[in-house]
Specification:
This is Aspartate kinase. This protein is an alpha+beta fold and 218 residues long. The chain has 9 helices and 6 strands. The chain is 48% helix and 24% strand. Strands 2-3-1-4-6-5 form a 6-stranded antiparallel sheet, with helices on one face. The two termini are 39 Å apart.
Length: 218
Amino acid sequence: MITVPSAVADILNETPYIEELLSRNIINLSSLARDIRPKVEKLTMKDVQIGSIIMALKRQTENLNVKKKFEKVFKISPDLIVRSNLFEITFVNSDTQTKKHRELLEYANVDQSTFLTVTHGIFETTIIANAKLKDKILQLYKDEKIVAILENVSSITVNFPKDIIDIPGVYYILLKVLAWEGIDIAEIVSTYSECTVILKNTYVDRAFSLIKSLFSAV
């Protein structure tokens, strides 16, 4: 069994967006206390008064400094890479795709400037590539079942520090600013230290400015 303050701290650690709102004093503590009360009671295994949760939230707010948590990531502005003239295609997975993936990668590697990602999911595989590869891909995968094709898209890649994996909530900070501005993200592709968002061409300039300002503001 854990205490109410410990339970509240655990809940906040799991939801960095709430921490951010608390740090800016733009969230009502009473409303938040009522919202998280079931979780607090589950963790403490007892009935908990709203007042006790509010007091725990107040103590947490006094110690919060969300900016410090992300200082390690944002203290040096990361590389932002924009690529345009891309297209995305998704297929239903099949046993015949492995050889085709290999051939496509070998073909694309001839030109180091080529943008290509192949994401093999449980039921589907999505390929995002330069539009110049479209004919090659359609020919290569002509026997595969196409789920969807999305054209006229661009990508913005953020190259984070290598130790980003140890810092919770980093992708939330990046994607939040786009969501709040109503920018629709078609796809997210990530590697160990890179996050690439795929979006329609009409959004790319605005999205780039927002992401750049995010890092500049820290």
